[in-house]
Amino acid sequence: MSFQKYGANFNDRAQEAAKARKAALEKYRTIVETPDPEMQARKAERAVARAAKEAKRHAAEQERQARLKAEKEAQAAEAERQRLEAIAAAEKAARDAEERKQLEIKYAEMMAAEQKAARDARYAARKARKFGG
After folding, report:
1. Sequence-separated (6 or more) residues with CB below 8 Å from residue 7
2. CA distance 59 to 56
3. Helix or strand or coil: residue 98?
4. Are 20 and 26 in contact (CB under 8 A)?
5. Which candidate, 70, 89, 69, 91, places its Cα nearest to that of 81?
6. How many beta carbons lie within 10 A of that of residue 106, not counting itself?
């Protein structure tokens, strides 16, 4: 097998490949740059379609960003509402506990008064029996 056709070493083969790529690129450029009105019209249509697609993509991205922002604001508002509800519930619980404490104190005082009245009544009855009167 002979490598004479492709060049004797790697550098020769690389130079040949670079020349071939350059030739293919030049050939493509001549095809693309032809002043054919139909080609120009299609090229313009593609550019318009590309611009419309990009505008649509940009609008969708803006809408997505707005939706995300609204969701974050809604979450923040919900968190704030929950925080305020927790504070209100804690305050209500503190008020209820204070009321319960006050009621217990009043009940204890009332019970103490009833016990004292009962004790005084027993004492008065005993005194009446003892002293006749």
Report:
1. 13, 15, 16
2. 5
3. helix
4. no
5. 89
6. 10
User: Which tokens go with 49?
Assistant: 């379609």
> What does residue 6 show for φ and ψ, rounded to 5 degrees?
-95, -5
Q: Report which DSSP code applies to 1.
A: -
Check if the beta carbon of residue 13 is closer than 8 Å to that of residue 6.
yes
Record the tokens describing residue 88, joined without a space: 């209100």
Phi-psi category of residue 132: left, alpha or beta, with phi > 0 → left and psi -120 to 50 → alpha: left
Please write down the HEC assignment for all residues of 40-82: HHHHHHHHHHHHHHHHHHHHHHHHHHHHHHHHHHHHHHHHHHH
Q: How far apart (Å, rounded) are the C-alpha atoms in residues 91 and 83?
A: 12
Chain segment 39-90, per-residue pLDDT in tens = 788 888 999 999 999 999 999 999 999 999 999 999 999 999 999 999 999 9
pLDDT of 5 above 80:
no
Residue tagged 């120009």 (tokens): 40
Residue 29 tokens, joined: 């450029």
